[in-house]
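Feature request disguised as a bug: please show the residue count (244) next to 3'(2'),5'-bisphosphate nucleotidase CysQ in the output. Example input:
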Amino acid sequence: MDDHTLAATLAAEAGELLLEIRAEGGAVGDKRANELLLRRLAELRPDDAVLSEESADNPIRLERDRVWIIDPLDGTREYGEPPRSDWAVHVALAVNGTASVGAVALPGADLVLHTGDPCGVPPARTGPLRLAVSRTRPPACVDHLAEHLGSTLVPMGSAGAKAMAVLRGEVDIYAHSGGQYEWDSCAPAAVAAASGLHVSRLDGAPLRYNMPDPYLPDLLICRAEVAEMVLEVLRSQTISDVRP
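Example output, currently without the count:
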């Protein structure tokens, strides 16, 4: 099984488990999905390191070229509010710091999007650009973009759900500043880039993974044809505004 297929398979397995145990709540879901992913990676890729949101960080990962970066349940709040579907499972592989392989399962929508089978981005639509925004904690960069682009805000839950909403043509832009870690963006970034979307930090710099400090606070995923316009608007905002 190649890495792309493995990522998709494990994300689907964790998603199926999460659906089965959803009544037990987010804390149980986080724990059980994490255990499943760690066990399966140990079986199938024993020589690779793992960085997981739900496990203590093992610094041995910094000595490895291949590191699986996982978020067993992205959107714990939404998972705990059935029948919401805007939560996800992230399984990614960073090779020499680059998000090379990824899968994002959206179990509530019965979907797994992954780098082994990149999907095409739907055609652009007319009208205002649509901007995915957290329904509970919208970052400062969102207000700035909405003001300068005249965007329509589309509230939704997890980072994975928002990133995949761009890929599925439900929104045009997902921008985030502050509060994310490598496991929040690695799988979505890999899947989005493989499908032809623009993926970067808010200043246009590339995303780098398996860093000593996994805090990676800002992210931009958007349609390629609007990327430069979005970056220009973001550059007009001060660094302190963009990265609180």
